[in-house]
Amino acid sequence: MLVASTHTLRQTITMMKASVLSSRSKFLHTISSTISGKAAHSHLLAWQPANATRSIARTCTSASVGSTSGVHPALVPSVSPAVGWWLMGCSASVFGMVVLGGVTRLTRSGLSMTDWRPQGSMPPVSLDEWEAEFAKYKRFPEYQRLHPDMTLDEFKSIFYLEWAHRMAGRAVGIIFGVPLLYFAARGKITRGLAPTLGLLFVMGGSQGLVGWWMVKSGLEEPPKNSDGVPRVSPYRLAAHLTTAFVIYSLLLYTALGVLQPRAPAVPEPLAAFKSRAHLLALLIGVTAISGAFVAGMQAGLAFNTFPLMEGRFVPEGYFGLEPAYRNFFESVPSVQLHHRILALSTLTAVTAFWVFAQRVPLPPTLRRATDVLLLGAAGQVTLGVATLLNAVPVWLGSAHQAGALTLFSIMLFTLHATRVPSSAVATARMSAARMHKVALAHA
């Protein structure tokens, strides 16, 4: 009888273990299905604080079950708002640098300083110092072919602009570097933020070198297969401008993430919206880069009519260079036509994106963002046409370059706004902690 009782007890214990394991499996499966989207909402209730909180908390809890840290990296720890405002200030300073760089290019001031000193230098003071600096400039093709009658006073005006551009670049480095050291020393740079800031530090430090690499190309004799006009390499100018765009975008998007923290998950109804937004951001970026080649080739000084190009849809000389790839970067007719097509395609795509946004339920912030995006795209195309028709005056050309960066900024804000709102993230921290304890208890 004792043996029978023991056998019965063992069976009971085995059944209890199986029941516990089954309950645990069902619990973890429920959490996992939440992450994979099987239990996602079919409407925008996920944007309501209560539902968003539960969704984020489940995500956090599920991540913690399968990780050693037990904390979802997007939620904890939070970053000081001071770091966000610092990054926002850095992005504004880079924006100013891009505009100043455009003015420097449009006034043909960029080649007035014929050497590069990473540590910086003061401009000439005495007449002898100015004469010596002017003599350096006279040795290079730009003076000899384009400005043989330039006076010393005219040289001073372009020299000061280039000097200001270079000093502004060093100032941006200080604005970024000094607070970075301070925040790092105070422990305000989180582990998740450190790689991005490290990348920004490297890219910002190398931007001056990229700028000199670009300027140096303009101090050399023009290639024999070119039009003979001294100018910087359009490839290097595009690299310099693209790097500036990337630095600005990283700063702005990171600042938005700190000041308005959002969970990485996107509510299911907005998945299609976000995928279209990513494609649109890519198109806007490619259009801006094509504008760098227009600037590098000074293509805006030709075909100053719209919508036709000197009475033709396809201009004379289009795709006339060999090998064929050069037409995308070095041919004035081709570069300008491609930029026109990309710009109008961007406006069309933004309009279609706006129409799509009217047909899906969106939070008020996102709906306003799409409205502003459409206005920004229309304004940028209008600026571009006005710049072309007026043969690129400095103020219009600078405004057009600033407009490209502004439009991309609106696009970045729109992408950021597709994530779960910060209020839900903040509320989810406590809920996530509670659900994490429950998950551990069932594990």
What are the main properties of this structure?
single chain, 69% helix, 2 domains, metal ion binding, 13 helices, 0% strand, mainly alpha, heme A synthase activity, 443 residues
| Portion in strands | under 5%
- Give the termini distance in whole angstroms: 37 Å
Biggest sheet character: none
Rounded to the nearest angstrom, the radius of gyration is: 29 Å
Quick one: overall form?
globular
Description:
Residues 1-6, 19-50 and 52-77 have low confidence and may be disordered. This protein is an all-alpha fold. 69% of the residues lie in helices and 0% in strands. The chain has helices at residues 2-36, 49-65, 81-106, 127-138, 141-146, 152-185, 194-218, 234-259, 271-296, 332-358, 364-389, 394-417, 422-442. Helix 9 runs antiparallel to helix 10, helix 9 packs antiparallel against helix 12 and helix 10 (332-358) packs antiparallel against helix 11 (364-389). It has two domains: 79-260, no CATH class; 267-418, no CATH class. It starts with a helix and ends with a helix.
Briefly summarize what is shown:
The chain is mostly helical and 443 residues long. The protein folds into 2 domains: 182 residues, no CATH class; 152 residues, no CATH class.
Write the layout of secondary structure elements.
Blueprint: H1 2-36, H2 49-65, H3 81-106, H4 127-138, H5 141-146, H6 152-185, H7 194-218, H8 234-259, H9 271-296, H10 332-358, H11 364-389, H12 394-417, H13 422-442
Helix pairs in contact: 1-2, 2-13, 3-6, 3-8, 3-12, 6-7, 7-8, 8-9, 8-12, 9-10, 9-12, 10-11, 11-12
Pfam families: COX15-CtaA (PF02628)
InterPro entries: COX15/CtaA_fam, HemeA_Synthase_type2
Keywords: Heme biosynthesis, Iron, Membrane, Metal-binding, Oxidoreductase, Transmembrane, Transmembrane helix
